Amino acid sequence: MTESSTAARSLDATVAPAASAPTGAPGAPAPERTPRGYTPALAGANFGIYLALLTPVLVSMAFKIQHISPSAEAATASLGLIMGVGALFAMIANPLVGRLSDRTTSRFGMRRPWIVGGSLVGLLSFTLIGAASDVWMVFLGWCLVQVSMNAVLAAANATLPDQVPTDRRGRVSGIIGLTTPLGILGGSVLVNFLADDFTRFVVPAAIATLLAVLFALVLKDRVLTEKPAERYTMRQFLGSFVFDPKKHPDFGWTWLTKFMVMFGYAGVATFLPLYLTERFQLAEQEAITTILISNLAAMGAMAISGPVGGMLSDRIGKRRPFVAIAGVVMVVGLVMLAFAPSIEVLILGQAIIGLGAGSFFSVDLALATQVLPNPDDTAKDLGVLNIANALPQSIAPAIAPAIIAAGASTAIGGYATFYLVGAAVALAGAVLVYRIKGVK
């Protein structure tokens, strides 16, 4: 998954509330108050999407591929390919749909068609994966899932500046931020009660679709009354993904730091089910239960370290030491995961990874906002930084099979080797944060 996030996008054309007659005014004023029911409905939609997207990443996809693959080696290779290419589709779909929704002239609103349409396509795609008997069908289904569900996320979260006054957006964003760990925990718990591949994909997707449609019904969507005069060109689209590191070196080092630490973090969940069944000889249900416990430990640690790291960083007035220490803590957890002699040590390693990740995510974002190249292009630049979150989720699973195969013949083992490589890359990222000169 892409653990996907959508930067707030500026409205570039005339909009009006869907419930009122189109005005044709040259611009839409900022909302004076948040519509009743909007915040819980948006939070519910985000929770549903993350439940549907992250449950396969954490558990379901690994076992699905294992069930339809001829060998363990084939399962590892197929899982890496599917997750890697799927993350690439997510990375492209999110900013593309976000911008397209800014220009949608449907009488049903700018965002609502993408929210409803994407969730329905996603449900059908999850159904295809659940019923698939061949790897190529799973591959096709997962690419469709990533496009459709990231379309829902992009359109739903783009409603924030449409619906919420500026001085209330931090509070609403904080609530929305809780939906990712809640989706992870919800998926981990739900899978324990679903016994077959089909229901493990379809039930979370059905919940996501229901919550997305409910949000669309609650949403007082804006209606674009005039088509934008300027065409959305391929050059503008490609510009969403690039920047000049020579002109903005601090931004470039921030991007690279985030990418390398996220590379170490990205492969943990994807291959953990296969790691548990191979190294510890756990049965499938035992592995699912272990994943639930380890996720609870990791999320609990993140819930503590995220706010604490952010507050201490603000109080001391420094960012780089907190980012570096958080990265090193994650490295310690990855090494523990690689050499874990028991399930208990593995769960402790997951908790330590969560402890570092919580602080890293909070402080790294604060650091990033201090090195943005252009204050008039914040949404685009935050989108570029989001690529450093999303791209490792494509690259790490894609190259993992080769690393695992190379390490399989060593005393360490294939999956352990992969976690150690991730630890080494993350450690390099933690060190590189000190190449950033404009922030303490």
TrEMBL record:
PROSITE patterns in the record: MFS
Record's bilayer topology term: Multi-pass membrane protein
Positions of region (Disordered): 1-35
GO MF assignments: transmembrane transporter activity
GO cellular component: plasma membrane
Segments of skewed composition (Low complexity): 13-31
A family per Pfam: MFS_1
Name of the featured protein: MFS transporter
Organism: Agromyces luteolus
